[in-house]
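Long-time lurker, finally posting.

We've been working with Phosphatidylglycerol lysyltransferase (Levilactobacillus koreensis) and I want a structural starting point before designing mutants. I don't trust myself to interpret raw outputs, so I'm hoping someone here can both generate the structure tokens and explain anything notable. Sequence follows.
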Amino acid sequence: MSRRNKWVLTLMLLLGIAIFAFSLRDIKFSVLVNDFVHINFWWFGVAILCMVLYLGLEALIVKVFISDRIEGFTFKDALRIPMVEQLFNGITPFSSGGQPAQLIALMQTGVDAGKASSVLLMKFVVYQSMIVINFLIALVIGFNDIQDKLHALVWLVVFGFTIHLAVIIGLLMVMFWYAFTKKMVGVVLYPCHWFMKKDRFSRMEANINGKIDSFYHESVRISGQWKLMLKVFVITFFQLMVYYLIPYFIMLALGYTTANIVMVTSLHVLIVMVISLFPIPGGSGGAEYSFEMIFRSYISSNSKLVLAMILWRLLTYYFGMLTGLVAMVIPPDKVSEKKDLPNE
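Top reply, 14 upvotes:
Generated this for you. Predicted structure of Phosphatidylglycerol lysyltransferase:
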């Protein structure tokens, strides 16, 4: 972990403390402590378990993809990947550092860079697809409710969905209209050379074309393995579902046992979409504000609302970064055989 990343991590932790302190400005500390002491720790334990399952299911997806290509890849190394991803997603704007960090973590186990890139691309496609599907369902269920609570910010939700949908469309175009997509990307990139040095533009163009080629070849390779893809889609569905359920179990822990599980889960889907648009790492500030605005009508006590927000943020953001720090000090196992397995 570079010195710059350590500084950013420290800054994000300090920013988080500052945001929590600001949220508590009108709440007596003794009241907050009393609310925390009287929560149902069994339900809070279920919320923690949901986050653990979220990381574990993503590790299973990595294991499924890698084991299809290479023998000797352990679940321990697979588990390091989402943990490292959580850390670098949390300290980079728009979660842009997660993919490169996963690639490095896979290469540390002895996985070839090309194979690792292909696996991460396919994992990304499945994940993005399920986000879009879940969002469409949540939008139908909770759009009117979130519109009443966020007013103008509701269009950020729609904008976030548009971006995710555009990414999926772009990836599908690479898979099914490879030649056309390559030409279109070349046309889009061409104006960049007016503002960039020739060498830098050439490197950027080569890098983008390389990723397009890698994704296309991997999609061709895996297109006939529908059982594998179906398995990954199902695992990803459950992975996202346990993550989206976390606020519901936090509300149960705080005594709000009449909470509507479908509505609460749908609203969390929309919150996650809003967070993805904030340029500050982890969506800090925007995440906390969105949560409080959306769940204010569900949690009547102001102190419990802030406590719910803090617990939610600790689980869905800071817990992931903590596991990433642990993963950074765990030495990876090495792949015992760098041998491609035959396609099914």
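Before you design anything, note these points.
The chain has one domain: 3-21+32-332.
The chain has a mean pLDDT of 85.
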